[in-house]
Amino acid sequence: MDIKFMKEAIRQAKKAEAIDETPIGAVIVKDGKIIARGYNKRETKKNALLHAEIIAIDKACKKLGGWRLPGCDIYVTLEPCPMCTGAIIQARIENVYFGAYDAKSGCLGSACDLSGVLPHKIEYQGGIMKTECEEILKNFFKNLRKREK
């Protein structure tokens, strides 16, 4: 685990926020180097699949030339949802590091734990730069509610 990668995931989350997307960012790391980045684009592209993790996984698969991402880790600012956790498992990503916990939808220990359900097991650690990741989300939704009034 390396804080510099979570800081880059936070930078990606801020890119999402800048375009009025829920500020979630992700980076995929292999051999100590970032090979892919992603941030939410669901609203912008009108596509439920375009979570930060899915975008980063897609880019990493294209970069490495296959659907398996062995030796890769993902850093994401919010605990992955069921769809993203499933994609992480299917891509054979080894480790997941996330910032904020998601009590409603998080599938790495909060709402449920999918890390060991399927044949490929993943390791995870949550709470990395938790305060920073939570603040980005809290501020985004606070500002969104103000605009909607």
Description:
This protein is α/β, with parallel strands linked by helices and 149 residues long. Helices cover 41% and strands 19% of the residues. It has 5 helices and 5 strands; from the N terminus they run H-E-E-H-H-E-H-E-E-H. The chain has a 5-stranded mixed beta sheet with strand order 2-1-3-4-5. The longest helix has 19 residues.
Task: Write out key terms for the chains shown.
5 strands, globular, alpha/beta, 41% helix, 5 helices, 149 residues
What percent strand?
15-25%
- The percent of residues in helical segments reads 40-55%
Q: How many strands, what sense, and barrel or not for the largest sheet? A: 5 strands, mixed
Q: SSE string, helix = H, strand = E? A: HEEHHEHEEH
Q: Enumerate the spans where pLDDT stays under 50 for 5 or more consecutive residues.
A: none
Q: What oligomerization state is this entry in?
A: single chain
Draw up the topology in text.
Elements: H1 3-18, E1 25-30, E2 33-39, H2 42-45, H3 52-64, E3 72-78, H4 82-90, E4 95-100, E5 123-125, H5 130-148
Parallel strand pairs: 3-4, 4-5
Antiparallel strand pairs: 1-2, 1-3
Helix pairs in contact: 1-5
Question: In brief, what are we looking at here?
Answer:
The protein is an alpha/beta fold. The chain has helices spanning 3-18, 42-45, 52-64, 82-90, 130-148, and strands at residues 25-30, 33-39, 72-78, 95-100, 123-125.
